[in-house]
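Predict the assembly for these two chains.
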Amino acid sequence: MIHWRNEIKQTAKGMAFLSPWLVGFVVFMALPIGLSLYLSFCNYPLLQPPVFVGLRNYHAMLHDSVFWESLRNTGYYALLTLPAGMIIAIAAALLLNSRVRGIAIYRAIIFLPSLVPLVASSMVWLWLFNSRLGLINTCLRYLGILHPPGWLTSPKWAMPSLAIMSFWGLGNTVVIYLAGLQDVPKELYEAAEIDGASPARQLWHVTLPGISPVIFFNLIMAIIGVVQNFTVPYVMTQGGPDRVTYLFTMYLYDNAFSFLHMGYASAMAWVELLMVLVLTAIAFWSSRHWVHYQGK
Amino acid sequence: MRRMLRNIGFVLLLVPALAILFFGPRQQAGVPKGRVVVTYWEKWTGPEEQQMRIIVNDFNATVGRKKHIYVQFVSMADIDKKTLIATAAGVPPDIAGLWDNDIAQFASLGALTPLGKLAREHGITSKTYKKVYWRACHYHGRLYALVSTPADIALFYNKLIFKSDAAKLRAAGLNPDKAPQTIHQLDAYARVLTKFGPDGQLLRAGFLPTEPGWYYPEVFFWFGGHIWNAKTHKFTLTSPQNIAAYRWLASYSKWLGPNTINSFATAQGNFESAQNPFMLGTLAMEQQGPWMANYIYSYDKPFSTLHCSYAKALTLPLALRRKNYGWAVAPFPSAVPGLKDVSYCGFDAFVIPRGARHIKQAFTFIAYVESQPVMERLCSMMSKNSPLRKVSKRFIERNPNPYINVFEKLASSPNARGLPQIPIMPQVIDELNTEAQAVALLERTPRRALQKAQDRLQREYDSYERVQKLRRALK
């Protein structure tokens, strides 16, 4: 009996210490998630009570041209940023992993931009991309390109501009790759060298398989980040010109807070979650073929 | 020892916590005792915020003191979204300063308190206001808003550029001492005044429909077009007049090229800066509201003080005052022969959100601002026209905007137009801005762009109507 009492007392104490997190999770996460699922089946303009409309919001998406446009734009953005971002980050990590003088300074330089708030760096890039006065076009003109792109004002170049800007904040990813690189057993390189493997072969057969769990982790994070991308295009282009940079989350936000289609926005949020889940599941499924864990 | 340290730590945390609890800042700090506190949220920041604050302080010191009301003025960004969320949560402000295009959306959702009865009690009727503003304060025949400050849109032109290029203008058969009278003339002036650099870049634009690009949804007005038929509840975007308006937008891109225009636009500074293209002289003519006079004076004093100081000019008769300015204002020309003094008349609106706690007291403040002397004072500070029918001579003569009579005339004109009261107005504005942008980029033909907007918006509206019907049936 006493044992039981002690057990209950201990559990209560534990729960009490956990309660700030538990209450926070229930009130600010679980409840809104559950509510958004319910609201996705409702018409809810925020100022009137929700009315159950069944699958109408999901059905409306099929016929909503802007929904598909925003989805297409998000896909295009992912295509531009995901592979290139990973290659750049791995390349940077490889360079930063070399033993040269002052490497700590180079590492700090690569990492620093990721500490700058997104809105602030967006403002800087707005000026860099300025078609007449920007540094990029000034350099291009100096190199003999008399008519450089209009970057953010050109429907053709606006999305690539955002992609280029996204590489600026890769510092975090680079640091994770760097940690992964330092974890690759040195014996493997020694063995490869004894076998006569060139540096390129060492990279392909030792380094990349060695950091494949880190690549996998970064891939998952990048997928989530790309699908949820909002701040930079919102600040830099507001979805323009001609909606070419209007991403999925921007349309979701407009539906919720400008057009007051809270039910439709909730349905979009669930579709977004589903997209992330499917993409992550594909990544997990494919990981069996290319991710190698040490000791396995 | 450990226990003592723990107790000291506890006391050290407890004492400041209690001190903050009992003596810390209060929401009602500075509020005189015995007053009802009316919370007033406003969108303005910067000079306009300061100007409205002066009016609020005056109210608190006079009428407020007498009637035991204290208006607490809070300035904020994204006021429409914040008002909306606060109203949905049941804790709205007593007064919110929204935009004219928010009224229909908010009213259609029952988010606003009808003001008709309160207005009548304070002697505010249709006769108090200029028709265009009074009409736009209503939704489905009910009064939901009153004007805090109004505006209308006219053509600002740089007299100094007109003067320097007088010979060229005359050679083209245009009068350098007059503003263009028709859209056709406006285009002709623009062609003469536009200057290119050796590399083909725009050095100076005579006029660009995309600068500042704030009035795309209203561009149809100057072509005799309409967005919406209130009787049939149908959009009328594909009318020949509207297509003509978009063709006009596209004509500048076809002439100069979208890249040249965009490159020019990105090289200009912000509206609220000394690098504003109109002030810099890189844009000779611009579609703008009356507030521009204040911004010009703030950022480019010499442009408004050619011969004497600003203060001295204010004591001169209006005709002489105008000579002190390097810029002038005229009605924006219409494309339709005989259609004169066309303007878009927008305004900042006072509304009382549903669930506000001090409706009567809030309206007392609104009625105070709507009185002729206070309204004229506020509009003078912002160099805007008045929404009221009665306007004093002094208001016209001493308004910092020496062309305020042009804005007054435009707002009183039978061709003064407000935005139609459509409950899905945010989508309408979003769609029309997108399509106008596509036309200006030559990405879509005017007809295709308008058809696209027409189809999408009509579908949106029909869906809105269906849901409202369903809601009514469920009640």
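Residues 111 and 171 of chain A are 4 Å apart (CA to CA). The beta strands of chain A are 42-43, 51-52.
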